[in-house]
Design brief:
- This protein has 254 residues and is α/β, with parallel strands linked by helices.
- The chain has one domain: 3-Layer(aba) Sandwich (Aspartate Aminotransferase, domain 2).
- The protein is 33% helix and 16% strand.
- It is built from 7 helices and 9 strands, in the order H-H-E-H-E-H-E-H-E-H-E-E-E-E-E-H.
- The strands form 2 sheets. Strands 1-9-8-5-4-2-3 form a 7-stranded mixed β-sheet, with helices on both faces. Strands 6-7 form a two-stranded antiparallel sheet.
- Strand 6 (165-166) and strand 7 (169-170) form a beta hairpin.
- Helix 3 runs parallel beside helix 4 (88-95) and helix 3 packs across helix 7.
- The chain is globular and about 55 Å long.
């Protein structure tokens, strides 16, 4: 007998009336990008993660890339990332023009080793990306101390660690920012690609939001050249929240 790792069809059927109602309300509104539902999602998810700011994005890979751009990563810079991870973690570094530097992982938890990171730091290291795998948070507290000492920015890739904690801190708020993916098979999955960045730094939140919306915070404003990574209404998920870009339901689901 085959047991599917992720049975998305069964998940949908279990919640079909509520999800269909939420999707219908979006279709009836005719507003498919941004808007009040997205704002509500951002507010609720930020609160769950104990973060001040949440920026909804098109996907988690965009979140990593935009965080690097917000930290002004340029050609010649180095970004340390785990040797064991999905390709997004390294490809965004190359796309930003920097050099990926791979650090080995802990033999028990498979997340990046703080001691291995220390060996890889040079005077060109600008950012460290930690990846929390299998719901387990990396040794982020120790890595945060290294970053503070060396004046290096820290990005947490939380795509497999929604609401995981380390010493009472939720994944994503230990570093300068946390990036989440809501790909359908993630701990919190969407109907399609979706993602976000959380942070407690106002200036960083504004910069990422601006970069994700063609360089502007409002319609027809383009202060800088940016990208297009705005959350859409064609995705889904299950959290205690009203309809949003991720079609949140107003009650918890199992």
């Amino acid at each position: 007998m085959q047991v599917p790792f992720a049975d998305l069809t069964s998940q949908y059927k279990n919640l079909k009336p509520e999800i269909d109602l939420a999707i219908d309300s979006v279709l009836d509104s005719g507003n498919f990008i941004g808007g009040e539902p997205v704002r509500l999602f951002e507010k609720n998810f930020a609160a769950l993660c104990s973060a001040k700011y949440c920026i909804g994005l098109g996907n988690g890979t965009d979140g990593l890339f935009l965080a690097l751009k917000a930290f002004d990563v340029d050609p010649g810079d180095e970004v340390i990332t785990p040797a064991w991870s999905w390709i997004s973690t390294s490809e965004v570094i190359t796309l930003a023009g920097a050099k990926p530097v791979f650090a080995d992982v802990d033999a028990t938890y498979y997340s990046v080793s703080a001691s291995e990171i220390e060996k890889k730091i040079t005077n060109r290291t600008k950012v460290i990306i930690v990846v929390h795998l299998y719901g387990q948070v990396a040794d982020t507290k120790h890595i945060r101390q290294i970053c503070d000492e060396k004046k290096i920015k820290l990005i947490e890739d939380c795509s497999q660690a929604h609401l995981s904690e380390e010493n009472g801190l939720v994944a994503g708020v230990i570093g300068d920012c946390g990036v989440f993916s809501f790909y359908p098979t993630k701990n919190l999955g969407a109907y399609g690609d979706a993602g976000c960045v959380i942070t407690n730094k106002e200036e960083l939140a504004i910069k990422i939001r601006r970069l994700a919306n063609h360089g502007g915070l409002s319609k027809d404003e383009h202060l800088i050249e940016g990208f297009n990574s705005r959350p859409r209404y064609n995705t889904g998920g299950h959290l205690k929240c009203k309809t949003s870009s991720f079609i949140y339901l107003d009650k918890k689901t199992n």
